[in-house]
Design brief:
The protein is 85% helix and 0% strand. With 122 residues, the chain is an all-alpha fold. The chain has one domain. Helix 2 runs antiparallel to helix 3.
């Protein structure tokens, strides 16, 4: 495993931890606790699917396997994500702020990784 692979795996792990911590915090705080916690988990799920789509598209481009079908697959995945977000907001009535917080869990993980790396370098 290369250093880059270890960093990416750590980022993925930190994003899951951040999403879980935010869900627990949403459950404990406020009157809409369960609805907000489910929103955070739903947003984290959307972010995870989007991340996987982007990661597979980049890996495909790096290995020169990029075909027009890969672009169709990428666009289709994001269209499905849009429908899933609609269902979560309108049909399941998950908390919209919770959904945004969950979708931001990868950003929180990246910020934590940047803070850690800035402390390590001289």
């Amino acid at each position: 495993m290369t250093e880059r692979d270890a960093f990416v795996r750590g980022l993925e792990r930190d994003a899951m931890i951040a999403c879980g911590c935010c869900a627990v915090a949403a459950l404990a705080l406020g009157p809409d606790g369960p609805r907000a916690a489910l929103g955070v988990l739903g947003g984290g799920g959307l972010a995870a699917v989007s991340y996987r789509a982007i990661k597979s598209a980049v890996n495909g481009a790096m290995t020169a396997r990029g075909r027009p079908a890969a672009l169709v697959k990428f666009v289709t995945r994001h269209a499905i994500l849009a429908v899933a977000a609609y269902v979560m907001l309108v049909r399941l009535r998950l908390h919209p702020i919770g959904l945004v917080v969950g979708a931001s869990s990868l950003v929180l993980a990246a910020a934590a990784a940047a803070a850690r790396s800035s402390r390590r370098s001289p």
